[in-house]
DNA sequence: CATAACTGTTGTGATTGTAGAACTAACCCG
DNA sequence: CGGGTTAGTTCTACAATCACAACAGTTATG
């Protein structure tokens, strides 16, 4: 990469309540930039989508529901899609036999979206593609990787 | 987050030439998962888009061209959009006075897309939002951050 | 020079995602 | 019970993205 032309002297943000720190350590900025580049460069939306024959939102639903059955609201919140569209997407996945809507145990209004067996299979394939680290990461020293893992493990919310 | 339900015993991928390693260190898998979660969780497409009044592809073009003027082809390749759509997006940005098409110095077919002054201003604002690290990252020890920065610096391709 | 390859554009159409109002069914609370 | 709220759906209209074919101008190649 050549030299970036942007003056990044003030990377503080103004409006948002989140990360409203005024003093961000430079090391954090650089580490963040490197991580962003690594992750965003390696995104394989195209590959995953055409491997499963699904649009990316649908894959995200699959991957989310694979962790645990979710209500429609939870899915919408996590994917930042509005309720109508969420309904549409889940309808489609249900029509394909990948998910099913179950009754919510305590709230009869809500529905729990869960994977069917073939949905699990699809989710597994998607996950295999998505969670394979890029070569340049996997090629690091075992020691460095261990350090990375340890530090980053503390961040998982 | 509760326990994931997917069996990730084999995260090796089959088809792609890239990362075709069969032996991926577990630490790499975990580090990768943590980084992905951090980056993808923190994406602020919505905020950036409504801050600039532009769709996300347009913001990406701005950010890309901010590094250095690019040909249409280079933009299309980097954003994985096809040429026709790239033309459309750059047209729009040009109409808004954020970028301009200049003549390519050596190839008269090609055009170099560069930022106008107000485009630079917009890119600066976008960058400020996008490159601000999440709080949980910035909140790490100075030592840990330094280690992260050092290890990750070696990966920037 | 003639042909082939490349860069970018135009035009058309399909697919995907976004936004809003209106509605049903179920829950909650006084 | 009755009014207010929530979860999800339907319907509508629209913006954004993607895909395909055809084209002009320029460059490269034999």
* Amount of beta strand of chain A: 5-15%
Query: Could you name the CATH topology of chain A?
Result: Arc Repressor Mutant, subunit A
Task: Determine the N-to-C terminus distance of chain A.
Answer: 32 Å
Strand neighbour order, sheet with most strands of chain A: 1-3-2
Instruction: Specify the oligomeric state.
Output: homodimer
Shape of chain A: globular
- Low-confidence stretches of chain A are 10-21
Please write the string of helix (H) and strand (E) elements of chain A: HHHEHHEEHHH
CATH top level of chain A is Mainly Alpha
Largest sheet report of chain A: 3 strands, antiparallel
Mean pLDDT of chain A: 88
SS field, number of helical segments of chain A: 8
Radius of gyration of chain A: 20 Å
Number of strands of chain A: 3
Domains counted in the coordinates of chain A: how many?
1
Helix content of chain A: 55-70%
Show the largest interface. A-B, 71 and 70 residues
CATH homolog superfamily of chain A: Winged helix-like DNA-binding domain superfamily/Winged helix DNA-binding domain
Can you tell me the CATH architecture of chain A?
Orthogonal Bundle
**What class do helices, strands and sheet pairing of chain A give?**
mainly alpha
